[in-house]
Amino acid sequence: MTAVVLDGIVLGLQFGLLGVGMTLVYGLGGVLNLAYGQMAVLAAMVVAFTLAVGAPALVAAGAGVLTAAAVGVVLDRTLMRPVYRQRGEHRVLLGLLLTLGVAFVIDGLLVWRYPTGTLRLAIGGEAVPILGVHMRVGSLWATGISLAVAALLLFFRATTPGRASRSVIQDEVGARLVGINPAAVRLFIFALSGALAGLVAETRSMTSPVSVTAGFDFTILALIVAVVGGLGSVAGAFLAGVLLGIVSTVSAYYIGQYITTIVLLAAAALTIVMRPRGLLGR
Amino acid sequence: MTAEPDAVVESEPAPLGVSARPPRSLIRAFWPIAVTGGVLALVPLWLGDSRLMMRLAVDALVFGAYAVAFNVIFGSTNQLFLCVGALAGVGGYTSVILSDMAGLPMAVGMVLATALAAALGGFLSWVAVRRSLDVIFTGIVTLAFSLSFANLVLGQRELTGGETGLLVSAGEDTFLRDRVAAYYLFLGMIVVFLVVFRALERSHIGWAFRALRDNELAAELAGVDVARHRIYAGLIGSAMLGLTGAVYAHSDGFVSPSTFEFGHVDVRVLVMLAFGGLGTLLGPVLGTVVFAVLDELLIGSGQLRTVLYGLLLIALFLGFKRGAVPAVASFLRLLLRQARFRLGRPPR
User: Which of A158, B100, B137, B284 has the lowest tally of Cβ within 10 angstroms?
Assistant: First the structure.
């Protein structure tokens, strides 16, 4: 049981980061980025490719994260322009449909070019006993990186760009009035979201292989976590991520994989119906 | 970074799709359906010899029926139901399980399956309305339903055959398995669906649909029961989806999760409808025909087809928010009016 819960926490921290990337972009302007998972998979494929040509692991990881962030930047500079010119429900709907299109383009190109592509970052070393459970080194690395990034995000909240981002999330017009440029903040958040997606793809691949077709699953997971945590709430996404991670491993261990997916989906649907602002949403 | 004029204040954006009033005269309202049905009825004369081509044509019509149904739900009342495939799947699997395993007559199975799909769709609609979910939350809830259904089908192996699917024995020795007959059956269903769509448009329900689509608050203030009409649309559209799924399952003789998969059905229906024009009578049919031809042309390109769909989705929603066909049609109308003007005849 301890082993299952610990695995759940390892998984949950990554769910949390995944959800943060989704929730930040939504909080900023109501765009649900359905190409999010494809950005993650793209990063994974870049890492696999750079490793294959013989680059050192750190360079490869950096290249993956940077690629995903670059996709975020390009998305914001091009397709999101007309989206942000719309308001309210139209903005939401247009953002949803355009990013769905982008998801299909990236997915199609990747699967077409690398039909069997997978990334598996094998990290060697003896299993380390924690609370009487032997944890694989890969899991520990993944957890360490997730925690470090989470701490960075917490620190970032207090910096000037962090405050600017939060003010735009709270009230766009108010932020403009005090001299913040929402377009610049959005660009930055899109890049950050991409980087997070890439990073999660890399930490995931330390414990289980990430295949080229996993994009849609990543998107759905991020969506579930973001919804349960409350769209727009970073702390909520983390909390929801860890909770759902534990629920997911426990349910997968005792009940089965298919039911687990249904449980996660039901959690999102019930959150929307019972408490639309999520665990910690405003 | 330079500050950009990123307009916060802008004129009220036009809604996606069109909400024009249908013609008042009975003939002008229904002749397009008759002509469409007539033209499509000629296809088997041309392709009837090739079993493969007829199979493709039948599949195209099934998607056409889905698109008309989705048009009732999304096009008329702006409820983003991302569970077209799942509702059709509920119809298909229920009907097959009832007739093959529970031993009920096929027709009874189909009716019950349709009723179940309608009830589920109506329920989803009711939840969305009761909790006043906006378009995005409706989308997420229905998407969750979609994926849950897919996982349920995969998990309940002894009932649904899991990933390998089920061979359907009900309907084996009937005309349903003949591709040409099946083609006419589905064409008949599309025509009936279109007639229902137009009849709805012309009734007081259609007035309510248009009102709540254009401006929900104004509609509510004018005395339109928005909730009730949304649920009507959910019920009717889902019944169409369930029936189509059930008939397709018996006619194809095989159901598997991929038949009703989200990525396979919903996205395609969305693109078809975006092309033809959301909320228009013949938009779904036009989208069906164009994409059937496109699919046939791209049959060898595999994954690149996915890329093309993505690009189309982007281009369509970026460029023609009312749908490509209505945009072209209004452009032609403009040209015609100018030509008339030059000829010295007063424009009508």
Answer: A158
Q: Is the pLDDT of residue B19 over 80?
A: no
Distance set, CA B309 to CA A97, B17, B40, B82 (Å): 12, 19, 24, 17
Residue A103: band (very low, low, confident or very high) from pLDDT cuts 50, 70, 90: very high
Q: Which residue of B has its CA nearest to A181?
A: B3
Q: What is the ipTM of this complex?
A: 0.89
Structure tokens that stand for B18 in this block: 């069109």
Which residue is listed with tokens 């995903």?
A: A68
Domain B26-297, CATH class in plain words: mainly alpha
Cross-chain CB nearest to A108 (options B144, B152, B310): B310
Surface of B (149-168) touching A: CB under 8 A: 151-152, 154-155
> With a CB-CB cutoff of 8 Å, which residues 222-261 of chain A face chain B?
223-224, 227, 256, 258-259, 261
Of A92, A107, A266, which has the smallest distance from its Cβ to B306's Cβ? A107
Which parts of chain B are beta strand (E)?
Answer: 166-167, 254-255
Residue A65 CA to residue A19 CA, distance in Å, equals 16
> Is A281 inside a domain boundary?
no
Q: What predicted TM-score, i.e. pTM, was given to this entire model?
A: 0.89
Name the CA dihedral angle for B132, B135, B136, B140, rounded to a multiple of 10 degrees: 80
Contact B194, B281 (CB under 8 A): yes
Question: How many domains are contained in chain A?
Answer: 1
The residue range of the domain holding A169 is 2-274
In chain B, domain spans: 26-297
